[in-house]
Amino acid sequence: MIAPGLIYFILFKYLPMWGVLIAFKDYLPFRGFWDSPWVGFKHFDRFFHDPVFWLLLKNTFVLAIYNIVFFFPIPIVIALMLNELRIEWFKRSIQTAIYIPHFVSWVVVVGMVYTFFSSEGGIFTNMLVDAGLPKLNFLMSNDWFRPMIILEVIWKESGWGTIIFLAALSGVDPTLYEAAKIDGASRYRQLWHITLPAIRSTIVILFILRLGNFLDTGFEQIFLMLNSTNRQVGEVFDTYVYVNGVQQGQFSFSTAVGLFKSLVGLCLVLGANKAAKKLGEQGVY
Amino acid sequence: MIRPTLGSRLFDIVNVAMLVVFALFTIVPFLFVLSGSFTASEELLQRGVVLFPTKFSLDGYRYIFSTKTILWSLGVTVYITVVGTLINLIFTTLTAYPLARNEFIGRKPIMMLVLFTMLFSGGMIPTFLVVKSLGLLNSYASLLIPGAISAFNLIILRNFFQQLPDGLEEAAKIDGCNDYQILVRIVLPLSLPAMATFSLFYAVGHWNTFFNAVLYINDNTKWPIQVWLRQIVILSQGGIGDSQQMGSDYVAPPGEVIKMAVIIVSTVPILLVYPFLQKHFAKGVLLGSVKG
Question: For residue range B103-119, what is the model confidence (pLDDT) as tens digits?
Fold first, then answer.
């Protein structure tokens, strides 16, 4: 019964892991995997000495920091706000509305961003012009790339991100609130002394997991938002691998870049997990 | 009962107002695109896209449904979604069930094997080369097979199967059921809510499939709708306005209307599934929070 699944994992997960060896070869499609010559760390050497390495590192780092600062707190705040609602149907309507964008593809999200922010006839751009404000170049400039990326993430994933916090909040013992009320605690006091401590460990875990996935910047989204005018701030490891590997056929070099990213990612995840356990939280693995 | 204080009321009002604003921020962009896709060209040229247009027209939809390209790629997407989800469910179930059975000796090492794929992967290029060397490039199979099992879903489903009482399986075995019969007759009927949740997540993934198609499929007659959506809306190419190339007999309405109609057409079908399965979400996601 397990054979198809086992074959699947070996063929599509473990064979590619074995295939990363081409990062240490000069892979030539016509000579194949076995006959291509070994070259050691040549491709890594080239990558680390290329100025683009620092550019990719910086772009990834800045996007990750933006994400943690501007996106990470939002689902927590919204979950806390939803938790304060007492009318059940209203709460459920809001939830239904804010979960929707999660199910929409990144192509649709970026497509909608184009219809709103395009400098030629974008809905929002036109509103700015009608209000007598200058036309801003949201999609074709280095300045707006990062804010637009974060805005899209906030729009698409904030609602969905509340689920895990709401689950943690539903486990709070209601008698705690009753006791606090009798002791004269205001709503803000209850929020601060009961609700927040209840989700503290969830917040810590998710924050650490986020640090573990520090290098994952949302590949499809960035791929769709990239164009020749914003590569300087938008190019990240995955998009660089795609352009060099698939489009230009530098298989070995781009595999080396990908392997570097995977290895650093693995270390970050394991490190984050260890940190979680040190802080007295349950690890994930 | 303690009467709510003024501060408490104010808190509620501000809270509700802010949540309504956020919900509008989520929904209003969809409404703009929906209205825009139904706006008549004259009005669009005069006033641009507005939330409440006065002149409606179906030109955008009439145009895209008359093009062979869009209609065909919608068909491709429906095919990938239906067949792909079935493959996902069959593969995931067949793999998860043995891993949930205590008497299966190989389950520990195989679980390790599965878990490790969540931590490390060969990456884009080696996977691409494997798919290529299997001869799957430019075939629908490249969109169906390489993602047949999500390790994450597999582990959640295994945990779900493990929670089922062992007694049921033992009873079935004594009554002469083999393993497959136990799975189909006993385990699956008890797992319908979990199955519904997985179907939804897998189906959404297939409907939204985009990058794998860009990577594996060059032949644009095999592109799913999301790839065409990018061509038309983001890259503003793909022959919009060129009725001949799109295979339409209609004169094209303004590009904006077509773009918005394509966005709606590629979004609405998957959103229609949403209410049916919504009641299972919370359960399904909570399953996910159970430790592996």
Answer: 888 889 999 999 999 88
Backbone Cα Rg of chain B: 25
Query: What share of residues in chain B are helix, strand, coil (percent, to 5)?
Result: 75, 0, 25
List, as ranges, residues 183-222 from B with C-beta within 8 Å of A. 183, 204, 207-208, 210-211, 215
Please tell me if residue A1 touches chain B, with a CB cutoff of 8 Å.
yes
Q: What are the tokens at A163?
A: 């689920």
Distance in angstroms (rounded) separating the CA atoms of residues A59 and A65: 10
Residue count of chain A: 285
The CATH number fitting domain A43-100+160-278, selected from 3.50.50.60, 2.30.30.240, 3.40.30.110, 1.10.3720.10: 1.10.3720.10
Q: Which sequence spans correspond to the domains of chain B?
A: 59-289
Judged by a CB distance cut-off of 8 A, whether residue A235 touches chain B is no
- pTM score, whole prediction: 0.90
* Inter-residue long-range contacts of A3-9, CB under 8 Å, 24+ positions, other chains counted: A4/B91, A4/B94, A4/B95, A5/B91, A5/B92, A5/B94, A5/B95, A5/B149, A5/B154, A6/B95, A6/B110, A8/B91, A8/B95, A8/B145, A8/B148, A8/B149, A9/B113, A9/B114, A9/B117, A9/B149
Q: Are A194 and A39 in contact (CB under 8 A)?
A: no
- Percentages (nearest 5) of helix, strand, coil residues in chain A: 75, 0, 25
Q: Do A266 and B120 touch (CB under 8 A)?
A: yes
Q: Does B49 touch chain A (CB under 8 A)?
A: yes
For chain A, positions 42-61, list CB contacts with chain B under 8 A: none
B59-289 is a CATH 1.10.3720.10 domain = yes
Residues in chain B: 292
Domain coordinates of chain A in residue numbers?
43-100+160-278
Helix B107-119, helix A251-278: angle, nearest 10: 110
Q: Residue B41: CB partners within 8 Å, gap ≥ 6?
A: B57, B59, B253, B254, B257
Q: What is the enclosing helix (H) or strand (E) of B139?
A: none
**What ipTM does this complex have?**
0.89
Q: Where are the alpha helices (DSSP H) in B178-254?
A: 179-181, 188-190, 192-207, 211-216, 225-229, 243-246
Provide the 10 A C-beta neighbour count for residue B103: 6
**Per-block mean pLDDT, blocks of 10 residues, chain A (285 long):** 92 94 89 86 94 95 94 95 91 92 94 90 87 87 94 95 89 89 87 89 85 86 93 94 92 95 91 82 62
How far A262 CA lies from chain B's nearest CA (Å)?
6
Query: What are residue A38's DSSP bridge partners?
Result: A25
Inter-chain CB proximity B25 and A90 less than 8 Å: no
Evaluate the CA torsion angle A25, B213, B229, B269 in order and state its sign: negative
Query: At residue B109, what is the residue type?
Result: P
The label of the residue with tokens 């139904």 reads: B38
DSSP class of residue B140 equals T
Residue A130, classified by CB atoms within 10 Å of its CB into exposed (0-12), middle (13-18) or buried (19+), is: exposed
